[in-house]
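Hey,

The postdoc asked me to send both predictions to you directly instead of through the lab channel. I've kept everything plain text so nothing gets mangled by the mail client. Protein one:
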Amino acid sequence: MSQTFKLFRLQQIDSELDRGRARLKEIEIQLANDLQIRNSQKRLGSSQKDRDQAAKVLRKSEQSVQGQRLKIERSEATLYSGKVVNPKELQDLQLEAETLKKYLSILEEQQLEAMFEFDDKELNFQEVSASHSDIIAQIAHQNEALVDEKNILLQDMTRQESERQAAASSITPQEMRIYENLRQQKNGVAVAGVIEKTCAACGSTLSAAIFSSAQMPNKITRCAACGRILYVG
């Protein structure tokens, strides 16, 4: 097995591990990000506050109507009790009863408006509440899938780490230093395949001398353009 193949195989494993780590990071961010739920909770809280306020207004309106009706009953009871015989007092009581009834009509109209407002806020609250429940269920399902994916990734990466150790054990310390330095410098890609006399990493066409050198199995040849180790499969 050639040294360049060993390095190329190590690069393949490291690239797989890099992709796995990147995806794990994405999953952790998604699992920790509850922005959608927080926004939904805010909408739910705002809708509930509006509904409760409308309910308070409605209760107050109902109490006003009930109180006004009691006033009318007391006024009419006095008017028709027969205890008041003075014409002026009777006229005043009759006028008072009429005034109370007129105001009752205003209060009943306000009560009806309050009922419509409450019904509207209640309907909105029910819709927002249902939407919030859907979001909670959706996030829970999504998180379940993400956790499953995370567990599979961790299992794969454990296997890949074992493969990496085996692959690295047959590479000399000097070559490993070169490889690791290139990995740091070249965005994780230290070894590039050669495709039709071209560096697969940077796309540069290899000279005849470099291509010939890269074909030697136990010689480390690097791309003249990007400096990566070349592997001719």
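Protein two:
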Amino acid sequence: MSVPVVIDPGRLSQFGSAEGNVFCLITNPEIADQISINRDAPYTDYLTVMLGEGDKFDDVLLREVPESAHVVVVSPEHFFASPEAEILGPRRKLIALACNSTPTSMETIRHFIDVMHRTSAAEQGAFSDRFFDLAETTDHLVYVDEKHGTRALLDHTREDLVWNQQAGPLDWGEQQLVPSGEISVLPINIMEFDEHLNLPLDGDIAFRGYPILHGGEQSYTREDQARIYGNLAALNKYAVVASVEQGRMTSIRPFEPEAAPLVRMLETLFAVDSRYELIWEIGHAMNTSLDILAGNHAMNETYGGTHGCLHFGLGITPFTQYHLDIVAPDITVYTEAGEIMLGLRGGSPTDRLAAAA
């Protein structure tokens, strides 16, 4: 019998003090006996609540979770959608593992819960504060990949852009996807989509890193997801360079001959659904406790290397069949004055990979 995955609520730093609060784990009946809770923190009570086939998360939350609670959601078997603020309530704090949009084993959950235990909410809060302080000093964010000779500018001051911070300590009534550590920008609310909108991003972008292919509520098969991901996996070695005008990729080319099949796969996605040509999301990730786990894992998204790491999002579920994130360790984010906002000058010298099991 495998060793249970252990969640230690006292080490989940974004929650703050356990004193006087209830801890609640919401998980699936299929895996509940494989998760153990360390009860050393001074919570008044520890609860485990089931989210099963056909259950609506909002109903489970309202019916079975106290109005004042620290809530962790681990739901690889059933789709989880973040509750609206009025459902979450003013006296709950909620974190949820992003573990349903890609196939997720218990060993994968174990890896990323360990990342959660090592993540510092205070450090992420300080990183976020510095990022936004620097953003106020420049008219554009400058995305540079010296290894592949690309440069692009984002007019981040455009008033209609939507910024989301999934990092730092939680206040009551707030929620995060975990492992936490991301500042993202989109042209509209993260739960909406309009193909007539765009990010004001212009220049060239090199995609070289780690793809994540998320499935959503629309019908798809895990076999198709795995096949498409397999056709993109070599991005971890080879780069595809995109010319971008106002957030839309107008052309893509292989940086080296070995990247030609990657270009063909991306062009196939564009042909099936032209909305994939939009760089819909830019994520500025800062989880420096996270090592990339080989494979198609949603929770790799907040990989921050040692000084932060960029990722790009193409498509958005449930509007497109899949959402493709590409983690890009070679890109550095600068102010126009040349001050580094995220990453290292010249890009990350090495990618931080988790040791093979």
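Summary for protein two, as requested: Residues 122-342 form one domain.

Thanks,
C.
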